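seq as requested:
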Amino acid sequence: MSSSTQPSVSTFTSLEFLAFTLGKEEYGIDIQKVQELRGYDAVTRIANTPEFIKGVVNLRGIIVPIIDMRIKFNLGTPVYDQFTVVIILNIGGRVMGMVVDSVSDVITLTHEQLKPAPQMGAIVEADYLLGLGTIEERMLILLDIDKLMSSTDMGLIEKIAA
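struct tokens:
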């Protein structure tokens, strides 16, 4: 049995997730990682960065890289409208923004409502999934935002923010 430094979702009695949409799917991230929500504003594009890194914004003196999750997960062409939200995250002391189609609510899930992520060809790699959250007829794809934002291809974000 291998030991892990990250607690699994099964070690908690309940967790709160911020629910958001990308395309037709609903996702959730740990609310404790969310610093604030903002409307989508123009960003300053950085040359020679992957397409999913939209650019940077100046947030009260902090240069914040902005990642478009629809592009990152290859979910079609993003549309920026009045519902588009930038979720400002604070992950390990790094501030970054993530563009999503909309934010719906904060959901508390109990251990019984958490299901393991299925091992199949999914848009989001299984490494970045905590599991699935079920709330009546709704199903939330729970992202491990720490792992996703510290993944190899996101390493460029640290360089941009520096």
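The radius of gyration is 16 Å.
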